[in-house]
Amino acid sequence: MTSLQRPVVRGLNHVTLAVADLERSLAFYRDVLGLRVRAHWPEGAYLDAGGLWLCLSVDDAARTEPHPDYTHVAFDVAAEDFDSLAGTISASSRSWKENRSEGLSLYFLDPDGHKLELHVGSLESRLAHYRANPKADRVLIDDRD
């Protein structure tokens, strides 16, 4: 690295969610969402979500209701798997928002009230949608070159 370059974040390393009941949360993330358990201990677990390292950590202050803001974690799913997985999730979880964006999305809560989303698409597909449907107040930074 030269003196003119700044260090930059390379990507998302992991997400940690506080949970009240580890076994209940493990069952949800493993059995409903299909994440792979990589390690577990009495106070936590590590799961693999297609390369995303998800940590579940037992916390006495874990929430029981969803936070009122829009903050959420979105999981990627292939278009051909969306309907099946969305049906499984809908049967065991409650929704927190209706999908109003382009593409397939399901907004649901985990057992501790964390807001989650099942989504088909990528940043590039979202930007392509915005290019095809421009709005005067939306600025797209085109650095695809």
TrEMBL record:
Keywords: Metal-binding. The keyword Thylakoid does not apply. GO terms for molecular function: lactoylglutathione lyase activity; metal ion binding. It comes from the Bacteria. This is Fosfomycin resistance protein FosA. InterPro entries: Glyas_Bleomycin-R_OHBP_Dase (IPR029068), Glyas_Fos-R_dOase_dom (IPR004360), Glyoxalase_1_CS (IPR018146), GlyoxalaseI/FosfomycinResist (IPR050383), VOC_core (IPR037523). Pfam families: Glyoxalase. Signal peptide: none annotated. The keyword Metal-binding applies.
